[in-house]
Specification:
two-stranded parallel ribbon, single chain, 6-stranded parallel β-sheet, 223 residues, alpha/beta, Rossmann fold
Length: 223
């Protein structure tokens, strides 16, 4: 079975898709068959999910075994309204059954499956269900992505506290693109003095994939 990795972030527009695409490229360079899944995408215009389309294009290029997959497999749940799924779905109930079906279809075609969340960890999906609940439901290891901008420490610590409170193991990656020149003097000293382990993207991609490739792959079972 494939190694399942849940890619999340401290908020929206932090670099989840950018990171997922980079991880897929690096996984292919290391001889792994990568695949990607975005369980839920909102803000879908004219029925075409932008993030999902990028993931599908990369997956089909990097993994010939996945050439027959389509957008309905990569983004099983989609909404037009650019809002949290809880809001975007309107009054209709939302079930994760299409997500489980997609995993069962994609997983035999890959060695490592990157599952990209939407927004941050506490984005609501349905009553009593949040993005942070997905790693346990799908049996995935978590990657937390944070920006390098001023003010990111607060959001990062809040996300880490939420993960630790639920006993969710994770790796912490910082996408070095916002305030990149000031990161070394404004943000990095805190993480180093507090001994918070982090890796910088994109240069950390090779080591990150090597580490992920050593994780156990448990048989996925629906809840």
């Amino acid at each position: 079975m494939a190694i399942r990795i849940f890619v999340t972030a401290t908020n929206t527009d932090v670099g989840k898709t950018y990171t997922t695409l980079g991880l897929m490229e690096e996984a292919a360079r290391q001889g792994l068959r990568p695949a990607a899944l975005k369980p839920i995408e909102t803000g879908v215009k004219e029925g075409v999910p932008a993030d999902g389309s990028a993931l599908l294009t990369a997956m089909q290029r990097l993994n010939p075994a996945a050439s027959a997959l389509g957008l309905e497999d990569v983004v099983p749940i989609r909404f037009e309204l650019p809002a949290a799924p809880y809001v975007a779905k309107g009054e209709a109930p939302l079930t994760l059954e299409p997500v489980y079906t997609a995993i069962e279809k994609i997983e035999p075609l890959c060695d490592i499956l990157f599952i990209e969340g939407a927004g941050g960890l506490l984005v609501p999906i349905e009553k009593g269900l949040y993005m942070i609940d997905l790693p346990a439901r799908i049996g995935a290891h978590t990657l937390l992505i944070a920006p390098s901008s001023l003010g990111s420490i607060n959001d990062s610590l809040l996300s880490m506290e939420a993960l630790k409170a639920r006993s969710i193991p994770f790796d912490f990656l910082i996408n070095l693109y916002k305030d990149a020149q000031r990161f070394a003097t404004v943000t990095r000293p805190f993480y180093e003095k507090e001994e918070i382990a982090f890796a910088l993207l994109p240069e950390a991609l090779p080591e990150t994939v090597k580490k992920l490739s050593l994780l156990p792959s448990d048989t996925f079972q629906r809840p």
